[in-house]
Amino acid sequence: MVMFYNYMFIFFILSGLWSFVSKRKHLLSTLLSLEFIVLGLFFYIFFILLFYFELYFLMFFLTFGVCEGALGLGVLVSMIRSHGNDYFNSFNILQC
């Protein structure tokens, strides 16, 4: 049963990475795939630390995951306000 959970977590993380690499057109889809990777890592760390009765690290991990999501949404809103869409190909670094 433990091996099933290990394979499930590896599947979560790898499918999130595949989604991140393959769907690079929209910023929102890349942010969702990053959150899926964070969720997979959270479950993996939870089941590892559950055996050691040391779950305080999970609060720090969740805090950083929420901050990462909030920063990503802030960048998304800023990009939509300045360019009108969330396509990466319309985003030019040389523009002001």
UniProtKB/TrEMBL annotation:
<keyword id="KW-0249">Electron transport</keyword>
<keyword id="KW-0812">Transmembrane</keyword>
<dbReference type="InterPro" id="IPR039428">
    <property type="entry name" value="NUOK/Mnh_C1-like"/>
</dbReference>
<feature type="transmembrane region" description="Helical">
    <location>
        <begin position="34"/>
        <end position="53"/>
    </location>
</feature>
<feature type="transmembrane region" description="Helical">
    <location>
        <begin position="59"/>
        <end position="80"/>
    </location>
</feature>
<feature type="transmembrane region" description="Helical">
    <location>
        <begin position="6"/>
        <end position="22"/>
    </location>
</feature>
<keyword id="KW-0496">Mitochondrion</keyword>
<dbReference type="GO" id="GO:0005743">
    <property type="term" value="C:mitochondrial inner membrane"/>
</dbReference>
<comment type="function">
    <text>Core subunit of the mitochondrial membrane respiratory chain NADH dehydrogenase (Complex I) which catalyzes electron transfer from NADH through the respiratory chain, using ubiquinone as an electron acceptor.</text>
</comment>
<dbReference type="InterPro" id="IPR001133">
    <property type="entry name" value="NADH_UbQ_OxRdtase_chain4L/K"/>
</dbReference>
<dbReference type="GO" id="GO:0030964">
    <property type="term" value="C:NADH dehydrogenase complex"/>
</dbReference>
<keyword id="KW-1278">Translocase</keyword>
<keyword id="KW-0679">Respiratory chain</keyword>
<keyword id="KW-0520">NAD</keyword>
<keyword id="KW-0472">Membrane</keyword>
<dbReference type="GO" id="GO:0042773">
    <property type="term" value="P:ATP synthesis coupled electron transport"/>
</dbReference>
<protein>
    <recommendedName>
        <fullName>NADH-ubiquinone oxidoreductase chain 4L</fullName>
        <ecNumber>7.1.1.2</ecNumber>
    </recommendedName>
</protein>
<comment type="similarity">
    <text>Belongs to the complex I subunit 4L family.</text>
</comment>
<dbReference type="Pfam" id="PF00420">
    <property type="entry name" value="Oxidored_q2"/>
</dbReference>
<keyword id="KW-0999">Mitochondrion inner membrane</keyword>
<keyword id="KW-0830">Ubiquinone</keyword>
<keyword id="KW-0813">Transport</keyword>
<keyword id="KW-1133">Transmembrane helix</keyword>
<dbReference type="GO" id="GO:0008137">
    <property type="term" value="F:NADH dehydrogenase (ubiquinone) activity"/>
</dbReference>
<dbReference type="GO" id="GO:0016651">
    <property type="term" value="F:oxidoreductase activity, acting on NAD(P)H"/>
</dbReference>
